[in-house]
């Protein structure tokens, strides 16, 4: 059947856009993030839900949050810090962001940022926040491909100790704030264009490294499947709060399972949960709330989740750190 000129050029244009998108993703997958295993080890600290409020009333709590972050960084010596949302929740937000990133800036530790639902409720947009953070040499978050939903969707390859291949990949997703669809209420979700970007990026890493590259994923709002893991007998940690997931399930976990690379997912959002458990070969984990400013009745000591990676291993290790304790040690095989 002969195409009309209009349909032909429309098809040709769409094909060209798809090819260019894949080329851009492949180039980004090859560019590197500067992250690298050292002596076959790589450590990540997840800080979440700081709820930094810029006011004299909360100064002591904010100071305690910053001091706790600095203490844990000095003691754990991470190679990367990841904030999983609800970091600065009041105005002037950029001043708050400068304050909460100060420990990483001064201690020269790379950091990455997910945005949470409350990060959108200040005097600047998440796009403006990301642009501001890009001026900090320790920030590794970016919009890897333009034109997809959200801010800060990117992949961060961690190179092997010898620098010859990508040993692991860290994916950052913007899980949005609240539903923007008139027929759906509740929290936001990772959308299909983000999932398409992830699939193409995963394929690009596999092609470049001639193997599926194991990965971890970080975002703010938990997947609906967290409610299943919460009830499993083998799940470890605190689960005193219900899972506040979006009502829309767009199949992100399914994509992780099908691509067979993401082995652990790490979120925040629910301040009284810090559990971890497995489903379909993927660990679903909460961080530990880091910020001392409470948003509601909160029962857990403030802290962070630590994730330890070993080069060439088929597992990762993780635990919760508070000011004085190391808790809930967990090894997840894959």
Describe the overall structure.
This is Calcineurin-like phosphoesterase. One of its GO terms (cellular component) is cytoplasm. GO terms for molecular function: hydrolase activity, acting on ester bonds. Residues 42-272 form the Calcineurin-like phosphoesterase domain. With 334 residues, this protein is an alpha/beta fold. It is built from eight helices and 13 strands. The strands form two sheets. A seven-stranded mixed β-sheet has the order 1-5-6-7-8-10-9. Strands 4-3-2-11-12-13 form a six-stranded mixed β-sheet, with helices on one face. A hairpin with a 2-residue loop joins β9 and β10. α6 runs parallel beside α8. The longest helix is centred in the first third of the chain and has 27 residues, at 5-31. The chain is globular and about 55 Å long. The protein starts with a helix and ends with a strand.
Question: What is shown here, in short?
Answer:
With 334 residues, this protein is α/β, with parallel strands linked by helices.
Keywords, please?
8 helices; alpha/beta; seven-stranded mixed sheet; 13 strands; single chain; six-stranded mixed sheet; Purple Acid Phosphatase, chain A, domain 2; 22% strand; 334 residues; disordered N terminus; 2 domains
SSE topology:
Layout: H1 5-31, E1 35-36, E2 41-47, H2 59-76, E3 80-84, H3 93-100, H4 102-107, E4 111-114, H5 126-133, E5 154-159, E6 166-172, H6 192-209, E7 215-218, H7 226-230, H8 252-259, E8 262-267, E9 276-279, E10 282-286, E11 303-310, E12 315-322, E13 326-333
Parallel strand pairs: 1-5, 2-3, 3-4, 6-7, 7-8, 8-10
Antiparallel strand pairs: 2-11, 5-6, 9-10, 11-12, 12-13
Helix pairs in contact: 1-6, 6-8
